[in-house]
Design brief:
Blueprint: H1 2-5, H2 22-29, H3 33-49, E1 54-60, H4 69-79, E2 85-88, H5 90-100, E3 106-107, H6 114-119, E4 122-125, E5 128-131, H7 132-146, E6 154-155, H8 157-174, H9 182-189, E7 193-194, H10 202-213, E8 219-220, H11 222-239, E9 241-247, H12 250-257, H13 259-266, E10 276-281, H14 295-300, E11 312-316, H15 319-333, H16 346-360, H17 362-373
Parallel strand pairs: 1-2, 1-9, 2-7, 6-8, 9-10, 10-11
Antiparallel strand pairs: 3-5, 4-5
């Protein structure tokens, strides 16, 4: 019986040397506590997420793009085929625009007089500084983009970000900055990007101005996003496995995970939850917030497959520390994956979702149709 508990690798690491790679550091020196969880996450990605039949959904919360994690970590993962779809806060996508537009953000100091910063027209995100002109110029560029004919209709955030990414890709090429922007890379690789609360960011504020004040026709419909994210997950489960990589928590985490309750509870299609789960978070579970909710708790909602709990890892740490380490580990240890180009399949995936829902719920769907016709 003792051997059951003592079968893990012996803790007797060699000293760190100047020749150590990221792989050496993770495999040989991160052996316990949250260092051990980083190692477990890297191994899970390398062993499971790397399979071509695994669809990887990534959620992004917290001010990641202002800190440069878009260009340093997330774009390389997209280009390597390890991000198939994204749910992000609108703020991250707004600040992502600065990089494609060649606007400058600077390292600063959190121990500073914010009243003085305000007087000098400088905006602070903890220890990141930018002049207010960065915001004003980004807003101006965004509003100009939104006057385009392709934006004058109702759409979900997937289509919105693809169209915006196309324009940002043009700016990247013009500024010789390829690889600076998540949205530009997502456009090039047909990676869907969604925002669960589209009004809660400067992008949403500009859209509101263009629609409500300036009279343009763009309208964001979140119901489209619910259907399209659900279709992606159902397709993933029918063709292989669904993996989630949650960077932070908040609304993006829930929006990505709620796809399974949508399938099981609302559409009443038999399903078992996401198969693989990794989260980086600094939130505790005992406060009851979604950001700290564990994969075990998610099982009770149908969000995570109960047979797959062993394939779940939570790293309690800062995303700005862990995400670059995991990205480097993936690039050093995993071959590039075949890119799924899910944006090009969005109409087909919705059609498949409707078909399977109808097949499992003919009586229910007939009743709804009858109520609609009354």
């Amino acid at each position: 019986m003792k051997k059951t508990y003592l079968c893990g690798k012996r803790i007797m690491p060699e000293p760190i040397s100047k020749e150590y790679s990221i792989t050496d550091l993770v495999n040989n020196s991160m052996l316990a506590y949250n260092g051990g969880r980083i190692q477990a996450a890297c191994r899970l990605i390398n062993e499971k997420y790397s399979e071509n039949d695994v669809t990887i959904g990534v959620s992004l919360a917290g001010a990641l793009t202002p800190a440069g994690l878009g260009a340093s970590s997330l774009v390389p993962l997209i280009e390597h085929g390890f991000i198939d779809w994204i749910v992000s806060t609108g703020a991250n996508m707004y600040h992502d625009m600065h990089f494609a537009l060649d606007k400058c953000l600077h390292q600063g100091n959190h121990a500073v007089n914010d009243c003085e910063l305000h007087d000098k027209g400088i905006v602070r995100i903890y220890d990141i500084f930018m002049p207010q002109e960065v915001l004003f110029e980004t807003d101006k560029a965004l509003r100009y983009i939104l006057t385009g004919k392709e934006f004058q209709k109702e759409m979900g955030t997937q289509e919105f970000y693809h169209l915006l990414g196309k324009r940002l890709n043009d700016f990247e090429e013009k500024n010789n900055l390829k690889g600076a922007s998540i949205l530009a890379s997502a456009y090039r690789n047909n990676v869907p990007v969604f925002t669960s609360s589209p009004g809660d960011s400067t992008i949403g504020m500009n859209i509101s101005f263009m629609e409500q004040i300036a009279g343009f026709k763009l309208k964001i419909n979140p119901s489209i996003d619910v259907a399209e994210t659900t279709a992606i997950v159902l397709n993933a489960k029918r063709k292989g496995k669904s993996a989630v990589f949650l960077v932070g928590g908040g609304s993006p985490k829930n929006f990505l995970l709620q796809t399974e309750p949508q399938i099981q509870e609302i559409l009443m299609v038999p399903e078992e939850g996401h198969d693989y789960f990794i989260q980086i978070t600094d939130a505790r579970p005992d406060t009851g917030g979604l950001s700290g909710a564990t994969p075990s708790e998610a099982v009770s909602w149908g969000k995570v497959n109960p047979e797959s709990l062993e394939n779940s890892v939570i790293v309690y740490s800062d995303s700005t520390i862990v995400l670059p380490l995991i990205t480097a580990y993936i690039l050093q240890n995993s071959n590039p994956k075949e890119k799924k180009q899910l944006y090009t399949q969005k109409e087909l995936l919705i059609a498949e979702l409707k078909k399977e829902t109808a097949n499992h719920n003919k009586k229910h769907m007939d009743k709804l149709e009858s109520m609609l016709n009354d």
